[in-house]
Amino acid sequence: MIRQIPVQQDRLLRPRLLPFLLPGAPTDHGTHSEQAKNTIQAPGKHLAQASGSLSVLMISVALNTTMAHANAAPSDLERITVTGSQYTLATRHNTHFLSKERIESMPHIADDIFRLMPALPGVAAGDYSANFFVRGGHSDEVLVLLDGQQLYRPFHMKSFNSAFSIVDTDNVGAMDFSSGGFTARYGNKMSGVMAIESLYDMPQYEHSLGVSFINARAGSQGTFDDDKGSWLVSVRRGYLDLVLDAVEDESNKFEPIYADLFAKVSYELTDTQSLSGHFLYAWDDEILDDTFTEWDGVREYQVKEKVSGEYSSAYAWVVLRSDWREDLSSQTLLSVARVEENRSGGQYDPTEVWLTLDDNKFFYAYSLKQDWQWRVSDSHYLESGFEAKYLDAEYDYWLEAWYQVNYDGEDYRQQKTQLTASGNVFGAYISDRWRLNPDWVAELGLRWDQQDYYGFTKAQWSPRVALLYQPTDAQRISLSAGDYYQPEDILSLQVADGSTEFHGVEKARHVILSYQHALSPAFQWRAEAYLKKLSQLRPWYENAFDLYEFLPEGQADRYRVAPDSARVKGVELSFQHHITSKWQWHASYSWSNAQDSINGRWYPRSWDQRHAVKLTSRYQFDNGWQISGLVYFHSGWPMTGESGRLVKNTPNGTYEIQRSLNERNQLKLGNYKRIDMRIHKIYPLSNSELTVFFEVSNLLNFDNECCIDRTSYSVDGQGKLLKKEERGHWLPIIPSFGVKWAF
């Protein structure tokens, strides 16, 4: 009898040795207390390793704690990761990964797995959003998979910068994350892959209830029919609206209501085939109705802002996993997805803008994909597969705005768009992995993709190559390169900024060199250098003062960015040290340079993060309490801003202030600093357990600059124009708490 597990990428389908585990990831069946005794046993050369704690694993720099030699057992060739930039939360065979004690020990806002990602090297994000940027790419350049199914814009509170994800962290059993150089299996994204797998190895029965500062949840899981089948269901409801309602005054109303539901049923049909059904539903109802007072240096005035949104996402899919022979297996996935987004709002600022808008989107996706794995021989492993999708989207958008301040000479703007888009997306790939000799492994891949929706048919061929060299069990050198294409997603047409046609397909070329060394079973380090060259780029729109405006397309500071090309280069250093079984630390330093070429000149991207330092540590006391912390520093993001000058009004001889946007991203926000702390303990009870935690985000209440709130001007007694710029800030100190009961 085979154990039923959900389909996911091949590296997740079987127990395997992973060269790039997140720090603290257990590497075998040993428990945390057996850490110093754990050893990887593979025929040939092997390396004794410590298995760390998952708590550090979940929010720490990425380093491998397992180094599988290229001359591993014959069945291990399929499990060797040849490319660099791979980070993994768990190995399938380690059930200790599922310990809630370890999952919950590190600080993370709203218990959101997406908000853990900025702790990885090369990942940048703002406090207001769960979305993130990978190695200088846009936030929409990451492929997100849940049990093999692609998730489209998988966020709650989309009207407010997508503050949280729709994936409940308590349901996560494993995750593979790649920040570049990923294999030919993945297509249509240029920067990264986040492959999430839901819980596996279900207990016979387990139920849980939990409440935190932001969410309340309930979950249940178990098995049936002599463990041939298993089931998992969870429901989560955010109650931030109730908290805010208790503290708001009558002039301010903010009600972000959201909920999600996940269910999975798996069953072993035969000894060689298993079937699973999955369902994910997310829903939002959001309202912001705010009136506040501003001061322009001369007088007070009121500003009114209103935003409302209704969003829903539904996914249903089935997965058939088949082991045809000992050396041949396949996974087949059939799915349907539906996304609906309705947003409306308005803003009245007598000194800047009066606007109103209505934005409605509707999207369907039908998908069939199949992946095959064939171990041809002890030194030869093949992967191949295909995917076919039918996509259908509808847009209905309307905006009207009058500007008191304009930077492009436009005092009035009206935008109305109604259109539909539909068509097919096809993809196929083959990847060939060879063991050249005991120390060398090579992988060659080729991917083909085609899109034919809304007015264009494009096809792309994407060659990818990777080479792994392990001179010793403790050292690993890898080189990977390849082409990665990304079509404009059918759900991402920029109708709010006047676009009515899809741009086409963007291209990125990755080159990554990685060196890793385990100085001892308890201490490892890694250095990685990368280069991304981007071309055929789609123009996009940004705001000169604030990347996270609630109604960005209607603001006067909105401008178009149309690069001829772009490049991102960087170096990442990562270190991890398991001092004892109770105390571990991890650190990383990243240097990166993300720039766009516009009219022959290079400009930094708005999320260019030149220097970043991330440090995490965890300590467990003898009485069971655990304390963990995160120290985070990065260079301030670039910003455009504005300037003013006095211009004489010829008819009456008076002077007026003429305002204009600065050259793109030549200003700099202040450096970002944050310290988070969490204490946490699990209390065993009769036939159950109780988990409690207390957390403080931004413990020292640093004023981290996020944006430009307002720019005002005045004239002194000598007739000189004076400029005053007020900076906005990221989140202040935020205390939090949570309780969870598992029974």
UniProtKB/TrEMBL annotation:
Residues spanning the membrane: none
Presence of the UniProt keyword Secreted in the record: no
Residues of the TonB-dependent receptor-like beta-barrel domain: 308-699
Membrane topology of this protein: Multi-pass membrane protein
Keyword Glycoprotein: no
Gene Ontology MF terms: siderophore uptake transmembrane transporter activity
Pfam families: Plug (PF07715), TonB_dep_Rec_b-barrel (PF00593)
Keywords: Cell outer membrane, Membrane, Receptor, Signal, TonB box, Transmembrane, Transmembrane beta strand, Transport
GO cellular component assignments: cell outer membrane
GO term, biological process aspect, one: siderophore transmembrane transport
PANTHER family: HEMOGLOBIN AND HEMOGLOBIN-HAPTOGLOBIN-BINDING PROTEIN 1-RELATED, TONB-DEPENDENT OUTER MEMBRANE RECEPTOR
Family to which this protein belongs: Belongs to the TonB-dependent receptor family. Hemoglobin/haptoglobin binding protein subfamily.
Name of the featured protein: TonB-dependent receptor
